[in-house]
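The instructor's notes for this session suggest beginning with a concrete chain rather than abstract definitions. Hand out the sequence below and ask the class to guess, before any prediction is shown, which regions might be ordered.
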Amino acid sequence: MVDSLNRRSLLTGLAASAAATLLPSQLWAAPLAKVKELGRLRVGVYRDNRPWSWGAGADGSGVSQGIDVDLGKALAAHLGVAANVVEFMAGDDLAADFRNVVWRGGLLGFQPCDVMLHVPFDRQLMLKNDQVAILAPYYREGFAMLCGDVDDCEAPPVQFKGKRIAVEIETVSDAYMVGSFGGVLRGDVHHYDTGYEAMSAVATGKADLSLGTRAQAEAVRHDQPSAMLKHRKGPIPAMTSPGWDIAMAVKDNSRTLGDALETITADMIAKGQMTELFAAHGVEWHAALAG
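After discussion, reveal the predicted structure:
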């Protein structure tokens, strides 16, 4: 059996050999023209990322749905082509996601996408990943807290000692609840695979409160209105993150497509279409600061 390093080298060599047989015009043809010629826009979205993208399943037997799925379809419609929205599993880090989804493709046969959605619009991330162009920020995300069996959702978090706290594992929310305030809440934290699941645990009575993203909190309240959940209105003490912009990524030599997507995104925002798209999933649209 070929070990993983040799296999990776072999695949890289095969890809290089294949590229060498192409004419320069084939390698550097305007990606927007290619999208138009093929008649479809291949859009990469994260798997199990509700309310943004979920539903296809590991075997691809289900139907993808969510904010990013609808946005991908809208982008394709504005370009006058069909949408091919595909879910992918998150890698070890964003560099791996860019490699697998945008500029090279996965080693197990996942084909590169024309555009990847739900990318942090971050300057340092751009500098470290020059194979992609990060553009068209379309939402400003932040953190939110949902409460169920809690007397005062606005209370200092240390007063939640003894309550069942639900968070997505290995996230900023997890680190906050486990490590802040001298770790006093560590023993009360219960971990879930996704932020939406953690928030839903409050709605179903399996947890008393949850910390996650604003979009996750709003989506759960929309999806389960009978749960009578309380949404913390005040700031979350000692939360170091002020929020972040969410954008798209295309291959670095796909600037013509990127320019078109930026124009479409700006137009959707100006006409209120982005607000409507988010509202369909119970999420209030917030303009990206970078926008």
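Then share the key points. The chain has two domains: 29-140+245-279, 143-231. The first strand starts at residue 40 and ends at 46.
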